[in-house]
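Subject: complex prediction, re-run

Hi both,

The earlier run crashed halfway through, so I resubmitted it with identical inputs.
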Amino acid sequence: QKEVEQDPGPLSVPEGAIVSLNCTYSNSAFQYFMWYRQYSRKGPELLMYTYSSGNKEDGRFTAQVDKSSKYISLFIRDSQPSDSATYLCASKGGNNRKLIWGLGTSLAVNP
Amino acid sequence: DVKVTQSSRYLVKRTGEKVFLECVQDMDHENMFWYRQDPGLGLRLIYFSYDVKMKEKGDIPEGYSVSREKKERFSLILESASTNQTSMYLCASGDTGLVYGYTFGSGTRLTVV
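This time it finished cleanly. Structure:
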């Protein structure tokens, strides 16, 4: 079992839809949780990060961590075609130098 | 704007060639990483470095080596390129605690023929 599991999709939604992207993790020591967005033929870029449990909101994006169920979510409201990308979740423990990655979910937002 | 710069966006090399991929960061980060990314396999860590002249193997180090002579530069070396090393190579850097994760370069698409 991978330490971070993520359904690769692909996920296809109409413009304006609410998108829910999800990961699960198995390591109870994970404290930092991140979402990266990767456009085609580009490097990933940090979109959201959270520490421990709770929600964090930034514009149309909300990151949510539920440590009791080891569940990480990213919600995109009013999705736009420009949101079409691969979304990767990542986690790490407090003293770890490495991020542990999900496989990424491919999202297409159709006009 | 802070950056991680990879020297080439696209490379085509022949089987058996020695290949150098260069990465430079301007954020004074201690940690630097080399990944390869393949469809269906996600990001796989090749090597990482947490200090000058220090290196640690990642999950798939076979066929690769690295060099970090200066803090800002981390090089990936394919000693004898093979076709199964055709991939997207991504360099990343991060601060001491990696609290804010990594900053990635734009990637090098390497094709070995």
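The mean pLDDT of chain A is 93.

- K.
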